[in-house]
Amino acid sequence: MSDFINNFWANYVAAASVVSILACALLLWLTARKRVVSSDDNTTGHVWDVDLREANNPLPLWWVGLFVITIVFGLVYLAFYPGLGAYDGKFGWSASGQYQAEVAQADKELAPVYAAYTAMPVEAIAGEARAMAIGERIFMNNCALCHGSDARGSKGFPNLTDTDWLYGGTPDKIIETITKGRVGVMPPLGAAVGGADDVRNLAQYVLSLSGSSTDSVRAALGKSKFTACAACHGIGGVGNQALGAPALNDKVWLHGFGQEAIIAMINGGKHNVMPAQEGRLTEAQIKVVASYVWGLSNKAQPAAKASN
Ligand code: HEC
Ligand code: HEC
Q: Where is the Cytochrome c domain positioned along the sequence (predicted)?
């Protein structure tokens, strides 16, 4: 497959490859044919610096043989493997095809390992040392790049080890989040709130919700502006897990703490994406990694009954 809009570059590279190989063959043939000895002392007749002469010592035959083998190998390789522009090669081999085949093979081999977990509840899987070792490995390979290897997240990437959830921390919600992904959207609302002063007052009110306000006069002035926010963040900023709108009345800040961070959120909004893992991970893998995530903030319940 080509990423270009037409085949010009593919054909260009293909032509350059074939012409280079043929040119090598031609060069080899011409030099083999040409007789350069012009005198009977086995020199070419060139003389430099008074007495320097160029002897005619042709390449050893085995060396010439290597050249020929290389040329033949190059042509055969290009016939069977992708190398000539858009031509796929007679074997139809591709790096992504080999990768897909290996993934399918690994999934098949691992199916019995996962089979035990598909029927188990997340709370019980989280109590199994082997499942947690698998879950940790899946997490390191697929999630740690965003959520951190300790799953504590960073600015913009939620901490998965605490009990503060954007979308809910029940096993079902965690599985849903991982499978389908999430898109958290906070629209830019600076203009709707008013001028820079109004935005500052509102930011102070938001800070007051978690007892962090530094200017109670501004906070009181900003209170009425919060109606625009309560639609998503709830009255009093309790948050709304259906929308992924974080609670504003706690001390957990996904996008930074303080007046300036809140002003930036109001003016700029946010579009934050958790990529869907279905298609990348199997259903069973998602269940195991969800159990691992659930286990980071909950005690596993080996017994059948689970309560949160
Ligand atoms: C490309 C970065 C990225 C990767 C990879 C990623 N996540 Fe996320 N994840 C996010 C972001 C960003 C959010 C927050 C989404 C939002 O703000 O709406 C999130 C949210 C979540 C949540 C919801 C947290 C809550 O408070 O409700 C869970 C659970 C989660 N991720 C688990 C995982 C797991 C498990 C993996 C690996 C299979 C993973 N994530 C891979 C970026 C990522
Ligand atoms: C349409 C729904 C919606 C409205 C309206 C809305 N928000 Fe948000 N807000 C969100 C979502 C969703 C997020 C989380 C973004 C993400 O997933 O990263 C968020 C995040 C925030 C954050 C960051 C919280 C943190 O933990 O860092 C602040 C602060 C905030 N909003 C303040 C406000 C204020 C103030 C208003 C009113 C002017 C407002 N929001 C209106 C949906 C909304």
A: 130-297
> Which neighbouring-strand residues pair with 100?
none
| Single-letter residue type at 20 | S
* Ligand 1, atom 7, residue with closest C-alpha: 274
**DSSP character string of 18-43:** HHHHHHHHHHHHHHHH-----STTSE
Residues 264 and 155: their CA atoms lie apart, in Å, by: 14
Residue 73 resides in a domain: yes
Ligand 1 center to 257 CA (angstroms): 20
* Ligand positioned closest to the Cα atom of 167: 1
Give the amino acid at 58: P
Give the pLDDT confidence of 97-150 residue by residue, as tens digits. Answer: 999 999 889 888 888 889 889 889 999 999 999 999 999 999 999 999 999 999
Range of the domain at 165: 99-181+275-297
Question: Is any atom of ligand 1 closer than 6 Å to the C-beta of 295?
Answer: no
61 shares a domain with 31 = yes
Residues 6+ apart with CB under 8 A from 24: 67, 70, 71
Residue 103 Cα to ligand 1 midpoint, Å, equals 23
Tally the domains of the chain.
Answer: 3
What is d(CA 245, CA 79) in angstroms, rounded to the nearest whole number?
A: 57
Would residue 12 count as lying in a domain?
Answer: yes
Kindly state whether residues 291 and 267 are assigned to the same domain. Answer: no
- pTM, entire model: 0.77
**Count of helix runs (H) and strand runs (E) in the chain:** 13, 4
User: Which helix (H) or strand (E) is 270 found in, with range?
Assistant: strand 270-274
Report the distance separating Cα 172 and Cα 151, nearest Å. 19
Q: Are residues 116 and 172 in the same domain?
A: yes
Q: What are the helix (H) ranges across the chain? A: 8-33, 61-80, 95-118, 122-125, 129-142, 144-147, 171-180, 190-193, 196-209, 216-222, 227-233, 259-268, 283-297
